[in-house]
User: What shape does this take?
Amino acid sequence: MSHRQNRTARRALAAVAVAAALLGTAGALPAAAAACPAPAVIQGRAPGLVPESGDWDAAHHRFLLGSLRHGTVSAVGTDAGVRTLVDDPGTLIEIAGLRIDPVHRRVLVTNLDNGIGERSTPATLGKVAGIGAYDLDTGRRLFYTDLAAVAADGADHLANDIAIGPDGTAYVTDSFAPVVYRVAPDGSAAVLLRDPRLAPAPGAYGLNGIVHRDGRLILGKWDDGTLWQVPLGNPAALRRVEVAGGQALLHLDGLLGRPDGSIAGVTNAFFGAGRDAEVELRSEDHWRTARLTAVRPSADPTPTAVVGGPAGSLYQLAGGLAEANAGHPTDTFTLRRV
Assistant: This one.
């Protein structure tokens, strides 16, 4: 073999070694994850955390939960270990919606002031609607967008939940205004839709959960349990989704799109009416109509979200919202597999 052939062979062997190492590193997490079954119940403990929503971070095999009380994002292991990933005290007051954008390796959160957080002030109460993006590995802030300024109407605002499109575009609901925002991957934002039919009842929360489905958004309203469809190509064509058995959706909170095309969600008895339950919805006509296929009573009070978990599992999150709203935040939260 010539000197040149020797050098080429060495380079090829080195490349194979590097590729093998990378594959080994990438494959280590799924292998470990496969060896760790999804626990039936994860009982977390963290002083006054009050998580309202969350998402499964498959890249790190952990849950990410947003805190209403602290305005932080916590990483929670399947062993119930809790550590803070995001703490942005100059910006975040309370976190409601949380979604992972795997394409850009970041976590998106909504910022609001509902009077529950430690950082709540009279000046910001009911006036905050924002979205922040943070690095999935380090928790470093990537951008923050003031959505109330984008709405530019001087009204009350409360950014609630997030859906993410395939390209990383985020869509955010506003519980105090009949508005849905569109946020580009670089953080620039606009009002996608403003429609009086989406206005909340006086003194109540309106728009809440949101799911991206095949070029459309599915919106849930907490106050009346109605479901709405927004074609992204023509948002003005907003229409209500007729739901068979929809009377059971009163106080519909977080929603999650499932791989099989269904939508999972929770209802709660926050403020008395409604019921604490996990619900499932399906549609055979691209969400022109839908049917309620399951209602499962919750073993935990005031659930606020359904969260994906390892190996395609699904968890219901109950973080002590009612207690925190009453001024007595608890130090425990529950992720219960459903």
Remarks:
- The two ends are 63 Å apart (CA to CA).
